[in-house]
Amino acid sequence: MKHKKVKIGQAQVDYFFDSNLTSLSRITDKKSTILVTDEHLVTAHPQKFSSWKTIVLKPGEKYKTQATVDDIVSQLIGLEADRNTTLVGVGGGVVTDLTGYLASVYMRGIRFGFVPTSILALVDASIGGKNGVDVGVFKNIVGTIRQPSFLLHDHRLLASLPEMEWINGFAEIIKHACIRDAAMFRELEDHSIPFFQRNKKALADLIRRNTLLKTKVVQLDEFEKNERRLLNFGHTLGHALENQYNLTHGQAVAIGMVFASRMSEKITGFRQAERVGRLIENYQLPTAISYDRDKVFEVLKMDKKRARKEMNYVLLQKIGKGVVHSLPLDYLRSQL
Amino acid sequence: MKHKKVKIGQAQVDYFFDSNLTSLSRITDKKSTILVTDEHLVTAHPQKFSSWKTIVLKPGEKYKTQATVDDIVSQLIGLEADRNTTLVGVGGGVVTDLTGYLASVYMRGIRFGFVPTSILALVDASIGGKNGVDVGVFKNIVGTIRQPSFLLHDHRLLASLPEMEWINGFAEIIKHACIRDAAMFRELEDHSIPFFQRNKKALADLIRRNTLLKTKVVQLDEFEKNERRLLNFGHTLGHALENQYNLTHGQAVAIGMVFASRMSEKITGFRQAERVGRLIENYQLPTAISYDRDKVFEVLKMDKKRARKEMNYVLLQKIGKGVVHSLPLDYLRSQL
User: Fold this and answer.
1) Which residue of B has its CA nearest to A132?
2) How many Å apart are CA B107 and CA A238, to the nearest integer?
3) Residues 266-325 (B) with a CB less than 8 A from some CB of A
4) Smallest Cα–Cα separation from B119: which of B156, B167, B160, B151?
């Protein structure tokens, strides 16, 4: 178990890399801790949960709603959770987003930590304190920013991860490479998902590298005034497509990254949109779908990054270097 | 208009005492501001709202729920509210609690301010950043602590305040006197609600004194680790009674203060429970009701101030001096 202490804003976060869920009891007191997970994980690893108080959710983004939060609040009251209770989200991005949100508002805030169990949650969703729920097609429109007390990685839990979820997670890894790490972009070009599935050491290195990359960005700008906005690369169009066209988050972001790369060619002089598209295809992600431009624009314009009639849009200057441009909504519509 | 800048934690809050709702447009840009209020206020003062984008809620504590939050979120999306939008809660404690909560979670937090229009909201609910909603009989069990950007007082709006709400608000004023201001306690003994209704200068002084008293307590301890806990005087039993027995917040807190005063006689040697009871009666508030001990204890033990098997209970040492004692739950049950 490799332990690293990280400071994000006012918060101290303990990272436990290459660890084991069985070590969790050394980090948080079993008597006052409640795990939040989903049916897939409990079915795949029943013995890991048997000695903990556990709230089990139905799996899937469609349950990332206020109704689920209400239901968990009732369960927490039933379990007599108080201000000394710690919640631990064990699962993918839906579980970590919900658990973080819940812990931020239950009794006006209780301690929480994460055991991310998908590639996406490991390299992205569990890091940086953003949490939230969806309202209709509007993704994460309600939420807070609050840092977890700890992250614990147990790569054994990836054994039960469906193939689609591997692909999903690599979209965020490609995003990180595009905006901040040209060397990692080249490394990804040299490999593939099967390579990382076979090679545990390479996978552990990649997860650690992405965790630290995102952590660095969040440390520079916890409340997303500057640098952190880069992490939205591919997400503005991505979020608008995701729930309307029944895409996974990774698929939607991949299409959003290709769109933003093409727009970058017109605006920043970026010249490698094709190379971005090729890497995305190599990781089994889509580069385009046909969609209803008006319907997508109606959702896109409500993106949290809008400021009145302009949208802060993340573009690429070169591979490894993201930039934010303020684009008029009308222009954006014309590009869809 | 008397302007005072106050620092609470990291936040800067502008207080505008003795002001006028018509001055609001000097504090916040009309184009990017949305008012949140209730049907009573719009009916009583229609001309005050006509030039603002306004979301109108059904009045009453029973609407202080997540369902109302969801409904307002949908309306905000309809109004294209973005991260540059300011929400202003114009109303009593229910409106300010809901608006503060909403502004804390919508798009992970937008700017907000309050125009409190009841005695309770003026002297208590609008100050200190606590917000939240109820889940079933559990009051404010979901919420955050986040400071408003400004408070604006317009005493003209009290003209439409029902008599019951005057009584309701004085419960919190008596609470402030009990825990921190013996001189104000004596002043309250010398007067009555009709006196303050007739005497606008005395009322304005009283509101300002209570606003600053609560502000001072919150400045000392924004996140309720020490001093701020005193503000819960009367509220532990009060919250457990309020929704179960259909009492107003003030009535429930009054009964809670009498209960805590009597317990103080046994624990701290306090000797003026009778005097507290008399003042409460003089302000037309109840000192006791009959209730089902088991039902009340079931809710009381889930109070946010519980720590495992103990409850941090606010008692009085003398009038003007509150203290927190950790009491075993079993003992508390025996005292009900």
Assistant:
1) B108
2) 17
3) 301-302, 304-308
4) B167
Burial class of residue B333 in the structure, from the number of CB atoms within 10 Å of its CB (0-12 exposed, 13-18 middle, 19+ buried): middle
Q: Does B82 touch chain A (CB under 8 A)?
A: yes
CA distance B250 to B131: 18
Using CA atoms of B245, B251, B257, B262 in order, give the dihedral in degrees to the nearest 10. -70
Hey, what are B143's tokens? 């919420």
ipTM: 0.88
Long-range pairs, B100-103, Cβ under 8 A, ≥24? B100/B129, B100/B130, B100/B131, B100/B144, B100/B146, B100/B148, B101/B69, B101/B131, B101/B132, B101/B133, B101/B142, B101/B143, B101/B144, B102/B36, B102/B69, B102/B72, B102/B73, B102/B76, B103/B146
Strand partners of residue A151: A15, A114
pLDDT at position A306, please?
85
How far is it, in rounded angstroms, from Cα A10 to Cα A161? 34
Question: What are the pLDDT digits (tens) for B294-326?
Answer: 999 999 998 888 888 899 999 999 999 999 999
Q: Is the Cβ–Cβ distance between B313 and B326 less than 8 Å?
A: yes
Partner residue facing A66 (CB), from B66, B77, B308: B66
Q: Looking at beta carbons, which residues of chain A come within 8 Å of B311?
A: none
Q: Which residues from chain B sit within 8 angstroms of residue A135, using beta carbons?
A: 70, 73-74, 77
Q: How far is B305 from chain A (nearest CA, A)?
A: 8
What is the value of pTM for the model shown?
0.91
**Chain B residue with Cα closest to A84:** B307
Are A77 and B308 a contacting pair at CB < 8 A?
no
**Tens of pLDDT along chain A (336 residues)?**
689 999 999 999 999 999 999 999 999 999 999 999 999 999 999 999 999 999 999 999 899 999 999 999 999 999 999 999 999 999 999 999 999 999 999 999 999 999 999 999 999 999 999 999 998 888 899 999 999 999 999 999 999 899 999 999 999 999 999 999 999 999 999 999 999 999 999 999 999 999 999 999 999 999 999 999 999 999 999 999 998 999 999 999 999 999 999 999 999 999 999 999 999 999 999 999 999 999 999 999 988 888 888 999 999 999 999 999 999 999 999 999
> In this complex, do B304 and A77 lie within 8 Å of one another by their Cβ atoms?
no
Q: Which residues contact A171 (CB under 8 A, 6 or more apart)?
A: A120, A234, A249, A250, A251, A253, A254, A257, A280, A283, A285
Instruction: Please answer yes or no on whether B308 and A109 come within 8 Å at the CB atom.
Output: no
**For residue A149, with 0-12 CB atoms within 10 Å meaning exposed, 13-18 middle and 19 or more buried, which class applies?**
middle
Count A/B contacts: CB-CB distance under 8 Å.
93
Type of residue at B55? I
SS (H, E, C) chain A: CEEEEEEECCEEEEEEECCCHHHHHHHCCHHHEEEEEEHHHHHHCHHHHCCCEEEEECCCHHHCCHHHHHHHHHHHHHCCCCCCCEEEEEECHHHHHHHHHHHHHECCCCEEEEEECCHHHHHHHCCCCECCEEECCEEEEECCECCCCEEECCHHHHHHCCHHHHHHHHHHHHHHHHHHCHHHHHHHHHCCHHHHHHCHHHHHHHHHHHHHHHHHHHHHCCCCCCHHHHHHCCHHHHHHHHCCCCCCHHHHHHHHHHHHHHHHHHHCCCCCHHHHHHHHHHCCCCCCCCCCHHHHHHHHCCCCCEECCEEEEEEEEECCEEEEEEEEHHHHHHHC
Any chain B CB within 8 A of the CB of A236?
no
